[in-house]
Amino acid sequence: MKPIDFTDLKTIVEINSWTGNKEGVDLSGQTMKNWLKPLDFNVEVFQRENVGNHLLFTTPQQNNAPKILLLGHLDTVFPPGIFEKFSEDDEWVYGPGTCDMKGGNFVALSALRNLHQQHGQICNIDVLLVSDEETGSDDSKFVTRQIAHQYSACIDFEAAGPDHEVVVGRKGVATYKIALTGVAAHAGNNYHLGKNANLAAAKLLIALDELTKISQGTTVNVGKIKGGISTNTISPHAELMVEARFTQPEEQQRVLGAIPELIHQHGIEGVTAKIEGGLQRDVMTPTPEQRALLEKITAILGYELKTEQRGGVSDANIMAGAGVPTLDGFGPFGDGDHTEHERASKSSFERRIKEVTAILEHYSLRQ
């Protein structure tokens, strides 16, 4: 097999596309547009002011054949000037996004190029590249949910497992900010007149933590707490930052229902509570439809892919939550993601590009 030319991967890796750098994210997106348009993809741009634009690339649907969505994200985690260079040796490529997930986007691009070169056209395959995955997809999740009904299957290109496992399950996640407002008073002279927001926060922290059920894969964590003015003042305000994660739809429903009710049950008279936030990504669980997708891929490849479940989240959660059979982890194997040691295996790129080419050929030629 001819060695892979990583020039195009180098090009996008060296574009700083930190989520907060809209100009860089959009440049990365424009670069992907320049590469996909010659493959006869049409593009719909979801213009945004505060984050990068989201891009939906589409091909014709032939004879009502099932359509598959390839899902990726354009953003990375490092602000400008920190970690921006690409390098390689005999076994690895190094740089921001080489495995999370510009490397995954490169796998999808390479497979699509193979398909176009071999058959002259691509059908029944769309690509969605979002701009804010690394900060929770707070904007793009609405786009993803909006288009989900159009697809019979979804493949996400986050990094593969160490033995090229694909991901069949991910925890769901919800985040909240809870603001507590009390009444300030001098702690020495007028203690009895104060309404202590810090005390309410402390009681609420315990109650929130008690929602955790480790045996069910559910955790509720108050990761940050602040409040008060000074040691001699009854606290008039406090704030809790809360994250909940769950592995089962029933637990997701329980926790999402319990937290908004619980915030008013801190027991401190005169302290009021307000809550912001909610579900970021649905839980992703194995389903019979997902198993059928895996079996189809096994038949296409002639061997079975190993699977795993992960505690982290991705945009695959959103598609799975919308009822679309979804598999994640079709990018290359790598490690060090979100650090300055990020890298991806060259041999892994070879394997994944070959596999994805075969899978997409099946979908594109079903006419």
UniProtKB/TrEMBL annotation:
Alphabetical list of InterPro entries matching this protein: ArgE/DapE_CS (IPR001261), Bact_exopeptidase_dim_dom (IPR036264), Pept_M20_glutamate_carboxypep (IPR017150), Peptidase_M20 (IPR002933), Peptidase_M20_dimer (IPR011650), Peptidase_M20A (IPR050072)
PROSITE patterns found in the cross-reference section: ARGE_DAPE_CPG2_1 (PS00758)
Keyword Transferase carried by entry: no
SUPFAM superfamilies with a match to the protein in the record: Bacterial exopeptidase dimerisation domain (SSF55031), Zn-dependent exopeptidases (SSF53187)
Keyword terms, alphabetized: Cobalt, Hydrolase, Metal-binding, Zinc
Entry keyword Hydrolase: yes
Every Peptidase M20 dimerisation domain range: 168-269
Pfam family for this entry, one: M20_dimer
Active site: 75, 133 (proton acceptor)
GO molecular function, one term: metal ion binding
CC cofactor: Zn(2+)
Name of the protein: Peptidase M20
